[in-house]
Task: inverse folding
């Protein structure tokens, strides 16, 4: 997971590359859960997910992108530490940023 995030955050990439790596990160998270149905569903929806990420990238502020990147790292850190509360907090942070983008409350 961290290798994917490092590629996502450190490389100069096109929006297509960014969305592909973001999708890869989320699919890796799903696969770690060990739920075959959820993994298959995630893969089946991957084209729609990647398209959504591309659309969001065009509308996110640099600050929002930074917060999402930090939330991704916080999720991985929480998983490594087996820290449920920190993980839930990071996930909520991530979703709140996406909700802000969709519903316009803004960061």
Result:
């Amino acid at each position: 997971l961290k290798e994917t995030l490092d590629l996502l955050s450190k490389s100069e990439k096109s929006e297509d590359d960014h969305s592909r790596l973001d999708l890869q990160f989320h699919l890796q998270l799903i696969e770690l859960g060990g739920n075959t149905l959820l993994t298959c569903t995630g893969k089946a929806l991957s084209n729609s997910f990647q398209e959504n990420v591309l659309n969001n990238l065009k509308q996110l502020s640099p600050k929002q992108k930074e917060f999402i990147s930090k939330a991704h790292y916080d999720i991985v850190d929480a998983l490594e530490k087996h820290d449920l509360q920190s993980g839930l907090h990071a996930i909520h942070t991530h979703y709140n940023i996406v909700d802000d983008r969709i519903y316009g409350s803004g960061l």
Observations:
- The chain is about 80% helix and 0% strand.
- The chain has a mean pLDDT of 88.
- Residues 18 and 74 are 19 Å apart (CA to CA).
- The two ends are 26 Å apart (CA to CA).
